[in-house]
Amino acid sequence: MAKDASDTSRGPNHVAIIMDGNGRWAQQRGRPRLFGHHAGAKRVREIVEACPDLRVKYLTIFAFSTENWKRTQSEVSGLMKLFRRYIEREALALFKDGVRVRFIGDRVRLDPKLVSLMDTLEQSTKQNDKVHLTIALNYGARDEVTRAAQLMAIEIEEGRLFHKDVDAETLSKFLDTRFLPDPDLVIRTSGEARISNFLLWQSAYAEYEFIDTLWPDFTAAEFAQVLSGFGGRERRFGAVTAS
Ligand code: FPP
Known about the structure:
Layout: E1 14-18, H1 22-28, H2 33-50, E2 58-65, H3 73-96, E3 99-104, H4 112-124, E4 131-139, H5 141-157, H6 168-172, E5 185-188, E6 207-210, H7 220-228
Parallel strand pairs: 1-2, 1-5, 2-4, 3-4, 5-6
Bound molecules: farnesyl diphosphate.
Protein backbone atom coordinates (compact mmCIF):
# COMPACT_ATOMS: atom_id res chain seq x y z
CA MET A 1 0.00 0.00 0.00
CA ALA A 2 1.23 3.51 -0.71
CA LYS A 3 2.41 5.32 2.41
CA ASP A 4 3.81 8.70 3.25
CA ALA A 5 7.25 9.10 4.75
CA SER A 6 6.88 7.54 8.19
CA ASP A 7 7.46 8.88 11.66
CA THR A 8 10.95 7.62 12.44
CA SER A 9 10.80 8.52 16.13
CA ARG A 10 9.17 5.24 17.05
CA GLY A 11 10.23 1.67 16.56
CA PRO A 12 8.67 -0.80 14.19
CA ASN A 13 4.98 -1.59 14.67
CA HIS A 14 5.22 -4.90 12.80
CA VAL A 15 8.33 -7.09 13.00
CA ALA A 16 8.62 -10.29 10.98
CA ILE A 17 11.29 -12.85 11.85
CA ILE A 18 12.90 -15.65 9.87
CA MET A 19 14.01 -17.87 12.76
CA ASP A 20 17.06 -19.57 11.25
CA GLY A 21 19.96 -21.54 12.69
CA ASN A 22 18.32 -24.18 14.91
CA GLY A 23 20.03 -27.04 13.06
CA ARG A 24 23.51 -25.52 13.27
CA TRP A 25 22.98 -24.63 16.94
CA ALA A 26 22.24 -28.31 17.66
CA GLN A 27 25.12 -29.57 15.48
CA GLN A 28 27.57 -27.32 17.37
CA ARG A 29 26.51 -29.21 20.49
CA GLY A 30 26.69 -32.63 18.85
CA ARG A 31 22.94 -33.04 19.17
CA PRO A 32 20.22 -33.90 16.62
CA ARG A 33 18.58 -31.07 14.69
CA LEU A 34 15.31 -31.43 16.59
CA PHE A 35 17.13 -30.49 19.78
CA GLY A 36 17.78 -27.12 18.14
CA HIS A 37 14.14 -26.73 17.12
CA HIS A 38 13.05 -27.35 20.73
CA ALA A 39 15.52 -24.71 21.95
CA GLY A 40 14.19 -22.39 19.22
CA ALA A 41 10.63 -22.88 20.42
CA LYS A 42 11.64 -21.72 23.91
CA ARG A 43 13.00 -18.49 22.44
CA VAL A 44 9.65 -17.76 20.81
CA ARG A 45 8.07 -17.20 24.23
CA GLU A 46 10.82 -14.79 25.32
CA ILE A 47 10.55 -12.75 22.13
CA VAL A 48 6.73 -12.59 22.24
CA GLU A 49 6.84 -11.49 25.89
CA ALA A 50 9.30 -8.71 25.03
CA CYS A 51 6.98 -7.15 22.43
CA PRO A 52 4.74 -4.91 24.61
CA ASP A 53 7.72 -3.13 26.22
CA LEU A 54 9.33 -2.67 22.83
CA ARG A 55 6.05 -1.32 21.43
CA VAL A 56 5.91 -4.08 18.82
CA LYS A 57 2.20 -4.63 18.21
CA TYR A 58 2.54 -7.22 15.44
CA LEU A 59 5.04 -10.07 15.42
CA THR A 60 5.08 -12.56 12.54
CA ILE A 61 7.34 -15.60 12.74
CA PHE A 62 8.32 -18.11 10.06
CA ALA A 63 7.88 -21.55 11.63
CA PHE A 64 7.62 -23.87 8.61
CA SER A 65 7.89 -23.08 4.92
CA THR A 66 6.30 -24.76 1.92
CA GLU A 67 9.86 -25.89 1.07
CA ASN A 68 10.53 -27.43 4.50
CA TRP A 69 8.63 -30.61 3.50
CA LYS A 70 11.83 -31.54 1.61
CA ARG A 71 13.62 -32.21 4.92
CA THR A 72 13.91 -35.77 6.23
CA GLN A 73 10.68 -37.42 7.26
CA SER A 74 11.85 -37.61 10.88
CA GLU A 75 12.67 -33.88 11.04
CA VAL A 76 9.32 -32.96 9.45
CA SER A 77 7.30 -35.18 11.78
CA GLY A 78 9.35 -33.97 14.77
CA LEU A 79 8.58 -30.36 13.84
CA MET A 80 4.86 -31.10 13.40
CA LYS A 81 4.80 -32.74 16.83
CA LEU A 82 6.64 -29.73 18.27
CA PHE A 83 4.01 -27.34 16.82
CA ARG A 84 1.20 -29.40 18.37
CA ARG A 85 2.93 -29.46 21.75
CA TYR A 86 3.75 -25.76 21.52
CA ILE A 87 0.10 -24.88 21.00
CA GLU A 88 -1.09 -27.22 23.78
CA ARG A 89 1.48 -25.95 26.26
CA GLU A 90 1.53 -22.26 25.42
CA ALA A 91 -2.17 -21.62 24.77
CA LEU A 92 -3.03 -20.54 28.31
CA ALA A 93 0.02 -18.31 28.76
CA LEU A 94 -0.59 -16.65 25.39
CA PHE A 95 -4.23 -16.04 26.31
CA LYS A 96 -3.31 -14.59 29.72
CA ASP A 97 -0.63 -12.37 28.19
CA GLY A 98 -3.22 -10.77 25.89
CA VAL A 99 -1.69 -12.27 22.75
CA ARG A 100 -3.93 -12.74 19.73
CA VAL A 101 -2.59 -15.68 17.72
CA ARG A 102 -3.27 -16.28 14.05
CA PHE A 103 -1.74 -18.57 11.47
CA ILE A 104 -0.88 -17.94 7.85
CA GLY A 105 -0.02 -20.54 5.22
CA ASP A 106 -1.87 -23.35 3.50
CA ARG A 107 -3.57 -25.61 6.04
CA VAL A 108 -4.66 -28.23 3.47
CA ARG A 109 -1.47 -30.31 3.78
CA LEU A 110 -1.32 -30.12 7.57
CA ASP A 111 -2.49 -32.86 9.92
CA PRO A 112 -6.16 -32.29 10.87
CA LYS A 113 -5.29 -32.58 14.59
CA LEU A 114 -2.79 -29.75 14.24
CA VAL A 115 -5.26 -27.67 12.21
CA SER A 116 -7.89 -28.17 14.89
CA LEU A 117 -5.47 -26.93 17.59
CA MET A 118 -4.62 -23.92 15.40
CA ASP A 119 -8.32 -23.09 14.92
CA THR A 120 -9.02 -23.40 18.65
CA LEU A 121 -6.09 -21.13 19.56
CA GLU A 122 -7.22 -18.52 17.03
CA GLN A 123 -10.74 -18.62 18.43
CA SER A 124 -9.74 -18.55 22.09
CA THR A 125 -7.44 -15.54 21.67
CA LYS A 126 -9.50 -13.53 19.22
CA GLN A 127 -10.52 -10.88 21.80
CA ASN A 128 -6.88 -10.19 22.71
CA ASP A 129 -5.18 -7.06 21.44
CA LYS A 130 -1.93 -6.56 23.36
CA VAL A 131 0.28 -8.34 20.83
CA HIS A 132 -0.75 -9.86 17.51
CA LEU A 133 1.33 -12.97 16.95
CA THR A 134 1.12 -14.50 13.49
CA ILE A 135 2.72 -17.88 12.95
CA ALA A 136 3.57 -18.81 9.36
CA LEU A 137 3.10 -22.58 9.06
CA ASN A 138 3.33 -24.29 5.68
CA TYR A 139 3.76 -20.77 4.34
CA GLY A 140 5.45 -19.67 1.13
CA ALA A 141 4.96 -16.25 -0.41
CA ARG A 142 4.64 -17.54 -3.97
CA ASP A 143 2.16 -20.14 -2.82
CA GLU A 144 0.20 -17.45 -0.97
CA VAL A 145 0.07 -15.14 -4.02
CA THR A 146 -0.89 -18.09 -6.25
CA ARG A 147 -3.74 -19.06 -3.92
CA ALA A 148 -4.86 -15.41 -3.78
CA ALA A 149 -4.89 -15.26 -7.60
CA GLN A 150 -6.98 -18.45 -7.71
CA LEU A 151 -9.48 -17.02 -5.22
CA MET A 152 -9.70 -13.80 -7.24
CA ALA A 153 -10.23 -15.77 -10.44
CA ILE A 154 -13.19 -17.55 -8.83
CA GLU A 155 -14.69 -14.20 -7.75
CA ILE A 156 -14.31 -12.91 -11.33
CA GLU A 157 -15.72 -16.11 -12.87
CA GLU A 158 -18.74 -15.94 -10.61
CA GLY A 159 -19.35 -12.27 -11.37
CA ARG A 160 -18.61 -10.86 -7.90
CA LEU A 161 -15.46 -9.04 -9.03
CA PHE A 162 -14.73 -7.14 -12.25
CA HIS A 163 -11.23 -7.57 -13.68
CA LYS A 164 -10.79 -3.80 -14.08
CA ASP A 165 -11.25 -3.40 -10.33
CA VAL A 166 -8.25 -5.59 -9.55
CA ASP A 167 -5.43 -3.49 -8.14
CA ALA A 168 -2.77 -3.98 -5.44
CA GLU A 169 -5.28 -3.26 -2.68
CA THR A 170 -7.71 -5.85 -4.06
CA LEU A 171 -5.00 -8.50 -4.24
CA SER A 172 -3.94 -7.73 -0.65
CA LYS A 173 -7.44 -8.61 0.50
CA PHE A 174 -7.06 -12.15 -0.86
CA LEU A 175 -3.71 -12.80 0.83
CA ASP A 176 -3.40 -14.82 4.05
CA THR A 177 -2.16 -11.62 5.68
CA ARG A 178 -5.28 -9.55 4.87
CA PHE A 179 -5.70 -8.73 8.59
CA LEU A 180 -2.11 -7.49 9.02
CA PRO A 181 -0.32 -4.21 8.35
CA ASP A 182 2.80 -4.58 6.21
CA PRO A 183 5.97 -5.45 8.16
CA ASP A 184 8.22 -2.49 8.99
CA LEU A 185 11.22 -4.65 9.77
CA VAL A 186 12.21 -8.19 8.75
CA ILE A 187 14.90 -9.88 10.83
CA ARG A 188 16.73 -13.04 9.81
CA THR A 189 19.01 -14.80 12.23
CA SER A 190 21.99 -17.10 11.56
CA GLY A 191 24.01 -14.98 9.14
CA GLU A 192 22.17 -15.93 5.94
CA ALA A 193 21.14 -12.91 3.84
CA ARG A 194 18.14 -14.41 2.03
CA ILE A 195 14.41 -13.79 2.12
CA SER A 196 13.49 -17.44 1.43
CA ASN A 197 9.99 -16.83 0.05
CA PHE A 198 8.79 -15.00 3.19
CA LEU A 199 6.21 -12.18 2.92
CA LEU A 200 7.51 -11.08 -0.50
CA TRP A 201 4.51 -8.90 -1.34
CA GLN A 202 4.09 -7.43 2.12
CA SER A 203 7.77 -6.55 2.65
CA ALA A 204 8.10 -4.35 -0.43
CA TYR A 205 9.10 -1.36 1.75
CA ALA A 206 10.35 -3.15 4.85
CA GLU A 207 13.79 -2.67 6.35
CA TYR A 208 15.90 -5.83 6.66
CA GLU A 209 18.31 -6.89 9.40
CA PHE A 210 20.45 -9.97 8.85
CA ILE A 211 22.17 -10.91 12.07
CA ASP A 212 24.72 -13.61 12.82
CA THR A 213 23.20 -15.02 16.01
CA LEU A 214 21.61 -18.45 15.67
CA TRP A 215 17.91 -18.38 16.55
CA PRO A 216 18.14 -20.39 19.82
CA ASP A 217 20.67 -17.78 21.08
CA PHE A 218 18.57 -14.76 20.09
CA THR A 219 17.62 -13.09 23.38
CA ALA A 220 15.10 -10.36 24.20
CA ALA A 221 18.08 -8.07 24.88
CA GLU A 222 19.42 -8.62 21.36
CA PHE A 223 15.93 -8.13 19.94
CA ALA A 224 15.75 -4.76 21.73
CA GLN A 225 19.17 -3.83 20.38
CA VAL A 226 18.17 -4.65 16.79
CA LEU A 227 15.00 -2.57 17.15
CA SER A 228 16.91 0.39 18.59
CA GLY A 229 18.76 0.65 15.29
CA PHE A 230 15.49 1.07 13.44
CA GLY A 231 14.38 4.40 14.95
CA GLY A 232 16.98 6.55 13.24
CA ARG A 233 16.20 5.49 9.70
CA GLU A 234 14.25 7.53 7.25
CA ARG A 235 11.69 5.49 5.34
CA ARG A 236 10.32 7.23 2.28
CA PHE A 237 8.25 4.46 0.64
CA GLY A 238 9.55 5.58 -2.75
CA ALA A 239 8.86 9.28 -2.16
CA VAL A 240 11.35 12.16 -1.87
CA THR A 241 11.45 14.20 1.32
CA ALA A 242 11.58 17.98 1.02
CA SER A 243 14.96 19.38 2.15
C1 FPP B 1 15.24 -22.92 10.64
O1 FPP B 1 16.40 -23.44 11.21
C2 FPP B 1 14.11 -23.18 11.47
C3 FPP B 1 13.01 -23.89 11.12
C4 FPP B 1 12.80 -24.49 9.80
C5 FPP B 1 11.94 -24.13 12.07
C6 FPP B 1 11.55 -22.97 12.92
C7 FPP B 1 10.96 -23.52 14.11
C8 FPP B 1 11.18 -23.09 15.36
C9 FPP B 1 11.97 -21.93 15.77
C10 FPP B 1 10.62 -23.88 16.45
C11 FPP B 1 9.32 -23.65 16.94
C12 FPP B 1 8.43 -22.60 16.46
C13 FPP B 1 7.22 -22.46 17.01
C14 FPP B 1 6.28 -21.44 16.53
C15 FPP B 1 6.80 -23.32 18.11
P1 FPP B 1 17.21 -24.52 10.39
O2 FPP B 1 16.73 -25.85 10.82
O3 FPP B 1 17.08 -24.25 8.93
O4 FPP B 1 18.64 -24.25 10.88
P2 FPP B 1 19.97 -24.45 10.03
O5 FPP B 1 19.94 -23.46 8.91
O6 FPP B 1 21.04 -24.17 11.02
O7 FPP B 1 19.99 -25.86 9.55
